């Protein structure tokens, strides 16, 4: 019998996000007052944990982000063609303006894309500017450098585990880099992703993609900024269940208020109706059953919602505790 794989609980991920964001603000303020190596290291740890949590990447990959890679990150407005810009929705343009993508070395010397939010980017600039004052070696190429004279990077896995315990989560042991990637791959099945969009997500998560699959020839950094970021932000804010049956193109700026600097203060849970541009459409029985058969089992494991379906295919909502 196959062993059931438990995935992180959405409520835990949102709680951890809030805890890390508050810690970033606290250590940034402390570093403004006291330029000491301990405050610098704690801010670096918090930022590293936030990048891992948002991107759902391997902790070792995020830790290898160098100052040179960060400073030479691609500017989408300069590298994208006019035709490509015109093909983007207003929401995707907004994403490209608000987010940054950095490429770092991954497994087998492959370049790994990492997305940075405004909050993280501003804090990283501050962290880099305080390196000399806090005694960080100028010979250390990594942004998340070990203190003193070391030329090594910090270990993100250790501190992510520590923050999970400090945040008082229900199941902190379930939040690991590996389980985070599986969590995204699972909950994003709610979206009506095309094969190409699934490839974009798989590539970002570092999953294998079939060698001979066809790709749209978009610039990779623009794909990360405008396409993959939609999925990551939906997961980051706990809103995946509201997009059941939507294609990626149907997600607009009103769906993800983080872009408008409005933070979610609760988990959104919604019944099996699909909202297309503020119009509510009730799914037909065949559509409901198709969605249930393909995604309900895995979403239940993720703690997004709980549903009951009777023998006639009708659904009853059950309030989550």
From TrEMBL:
SUPFAM superfamilies associated with the record: DNA breaking-rejoining enzymes
Molecular function as annotated in GO: DNA binding
PANTHER family: SET DOMAIN-CONTAINING PROTEIN-RELATED (PTHR33480)
Designated name of the protein: Uncharacterized protein
């Amino acid at each position: 019998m196959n062993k059931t794989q438990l995935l992180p609980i959405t409520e835990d991920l949102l709680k951890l996000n809030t805890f890390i964001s508050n810690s970033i603000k606290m250590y940034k303020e402390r570093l403004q007052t006291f330029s000491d190596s301990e405050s610098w290291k704690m801010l670096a740890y918090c930022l590293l944990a936030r990048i891992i949590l948002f991107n759902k990447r391997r902790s070792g990959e995020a830790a290898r982000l160098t100052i040179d890679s960060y400073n030479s990150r691609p500017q989408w407005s300069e590298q994208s063609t006019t035709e490509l810009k015109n093909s983007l929705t207003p929401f995707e343009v907004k994403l490209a303006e608000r987010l940054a993508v950095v490429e770092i070395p991954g497994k087998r010397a492959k370049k790994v894309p990492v997305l940075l939010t405004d909050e993280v980017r501003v804090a990283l600039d501050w962290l880099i500017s305080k390196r000399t004052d806090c005694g960080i070696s100028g010979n250390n190429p990594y942004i998340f450098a070990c203190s003193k004279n070391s030329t090594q990077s910090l270990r993100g896995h250790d501190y992510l585990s520590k923050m999970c315990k400090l945040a008082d989560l229900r199941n902190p042991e379930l939040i690991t880099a590996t389980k985070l990637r599986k969590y995204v791959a699972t909950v994003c099945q709610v979206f009506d992703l095309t094969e190409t969009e699934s490839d974009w997500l798989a590539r970002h998560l570092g999953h294998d993609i079939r060698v001979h699959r066809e790709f749209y020839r978009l610039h990779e950094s623009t794909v990360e900024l405008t396409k993959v970021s939609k999925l990551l932000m939906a997961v980051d804010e706990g809103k995946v269940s509201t997009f059941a049956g939507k294609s990626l193109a149907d997600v607009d700026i009103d769906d993800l208020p983080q872009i408008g600097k409005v933070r979610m203060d609760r988990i959104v849970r919604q019944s099996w109706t699909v909202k297309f541009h503020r119009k509510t459409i009730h799914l037909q029985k065949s559509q409901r059953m198709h969605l249930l058969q393909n995604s309900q089992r895995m979403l239940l494991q993720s703690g997004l919602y709980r549903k009951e379906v009777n023998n006639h295919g009708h659904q009853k909502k059950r309030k989550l505790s």
